[in-house]
């Protein structure tokens, strides 16, 4: 059989409790979902403000389809760039308070495009060990020296910056770490970038729409501004749509447009999505009540789980919508997720290699769309599962 050489790897995954399986959603993404014909409360999505299924976004997408059709039909540089994309780029640049923004089809592609367009063999990139896989892949693909520092270890980062003699230096971090929920020390990172003449790429996939005044993201959260910052955020999370953008200095953005291969060699996102995202960003900007509801849910969860969990389970000290509950063992984490699912509560178990060995966890993600009752159901189910297991 031509692919039998692959079977050993799959068997090994199964044996280690690492084989992944999908659930099929029969409803819109939301706090309440239908899976396999059954209603569940879901804590799995990055739809932090509950906009993915918002009527205003649906209407904007429908109106966009009526104007532009469905497919963009071409890349941005070859007549795939519609007025809806152009308007959205301007809206995003204004919203985050940076000179210019460029849309990418996904966050993964934005990260690949930025790092490979800016760096080559003569350069070095400095990356936090817990960065998202797309940033790691971007660093490898760039062929720059790839220097990783321990999570949030500024002293190690500085010694690497001092020891490395190259043409260009780029520091890259998740602004909010996707599996831990903690926020990068952006002011300190920026100070290091300034002291060592480096650029700073902030991947704000989980902060955009959630952190800072009007949900402007991590820069607003810390009130930092610098022409050295390359700001990247995704549009498929809090903004409720799909895609991503990079914002910053005008020369930087023009370079990305001319050089980023994941921008140039791919079809533009459908303009109808740009219409929907534009509405999403508008609702984000005026979404103080949504952010308040989200924060109340976070506080309720932390309060309910403090001192009610079995020995060895640890709710990480995150103040963001990502609330990871570290269980440790791969099978135990899967087992708890299955117990919750049996009670109609969906929480993903995240295992290596997405997280370090021995730190398998439930990645609870909260949304403004969750009610107090939803959060209570989750906490009760977790406490009950903890009692059954210990
Ligand atoms: C989700 C995510 C991405 C990828 O964005 P997509 O638009 O889903 O491709 C990149 N970086 C981080 C930190 C993310 O969480």
Topology, number of strands: 14
- Uncertain segments: none
N-to-C series of helices and strands: HEEHHHEHEHEHEHEHEEHHHHEEHEEEH
Cα distance spanning the termini = 45 Å
Strand order of the largest sheet: 3-9-8-7-6-4-5
Ligands, deduplicated: pyridoxal-5'-phosphate
Structural class: alpha/beta
| Rg, Cα atoms, Å | 21 Å
Overall geometry: globular
Kindly state the percentage of residues in helix.
40-55%
Main sheet?
7 strands, mixed
- Which percent band covers the strand fraction? 15-25%
Average pLDDT reading: 96
Number of helices: 15
Give a topology summary.
Blueprint: H1 7-15, E1 32-35, E2 38-42, H2 55-68, H3 76-80, H4 83-96, E3 100-104, H5 107-118, E4 124-128, H6 133-142, E5 145-149, H7 154-163, E6 169-174, H8 186-195, E7 199-203, H9 218-222, E8 229-234, E9 244-248, H10 250-259, H11 261-264, H12 271-285, H13 288-305, E10 314-315, E11 322-328, H14 330-342, E12 345-346, E13 349-350, E14 360-365, H15 372-389
Helix pairs in contact: 2-12, 4-12, 5-6, 13-15
The structure holds pyridoxal-5'-phosphate.
The site of pyridoxal-5'-phosphate has 14 residues, from helix 5.
């Amino acid at each position: 059989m031509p692919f039998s050489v692959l079977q050993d790897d799959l068997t090994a995954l199964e044996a280690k409790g690492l084989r992944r399986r999908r659930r099929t959603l029969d409803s819109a993404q939301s706090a309440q979902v239908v899976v396999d014909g059954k209603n569940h409360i879901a804590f799995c999505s990055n739809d932090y403000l509950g906009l993915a299924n918002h009527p205003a976004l649906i209407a904007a997408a429908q109106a966009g389809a009526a104007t532009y059709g469905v497919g963009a039909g071409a890349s941005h540089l070859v007549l795939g760039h519609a007025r809806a994309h152009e308007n959205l780029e301007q809206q995003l640049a204004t919203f985050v308070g940076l000179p210019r923004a460029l849309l990418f089809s996904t966050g993964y592609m934005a990260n690949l495009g930025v790092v490979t367009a800016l760096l080559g063999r003569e350069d070095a990139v400095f990356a936090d060990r817990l960065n998202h896989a797309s940033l790691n892949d971007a660093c490898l693909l760039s062929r720059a020296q790839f220097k990783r520092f321990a999570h949030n270890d500024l002293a190690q980062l500085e010694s690497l910056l001092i020891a490395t003699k190259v043409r260009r230096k780029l520091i890259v971090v998740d602004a909010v770490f996707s599996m831990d929920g903690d926020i990068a020390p952006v002011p300190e990172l920026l100070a290091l970038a300034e002291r060592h003449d480096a650029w700073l790429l902030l991947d704000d996939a989980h902060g955009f729409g959630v952190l800072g005044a009007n949900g402007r993201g991590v820069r607003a959260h810390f009130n930092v501004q610098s022409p050295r910052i390359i700001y990247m955020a995704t549009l498929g999370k809090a903004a409720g749509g799909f895609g991503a953008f990079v914002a910053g200095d005008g020369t930087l953005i023009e370079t990305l447009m001319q050089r980023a291969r994941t921008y140039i060699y791919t079809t533009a996102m459908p303009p109808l999505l740009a219409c929907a995202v534009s509405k999403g960003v508008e609702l984000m900007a005026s979404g103080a009540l949504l952010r308040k509801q989200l924060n109340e849910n976070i506080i309720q969860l932390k309060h309910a789980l403090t001192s009610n969990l079995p020995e060895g389970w640890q709710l990480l000290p995150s103040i963001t919508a990502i609330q990871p509950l570290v269980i440790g063992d791969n099978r135990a984490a899967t087992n708890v997720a299955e117990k919750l699912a049996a009670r109609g509560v969906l929480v993903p178990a995240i295992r290596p290699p997405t997280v370090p060995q021995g730190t398998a966890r439930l990645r609870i993600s909260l949304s403004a769309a969750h009610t107090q009752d939803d959060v209570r159901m989750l906490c009760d189910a977790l406490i009950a599962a903890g009692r059954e297991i210990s």
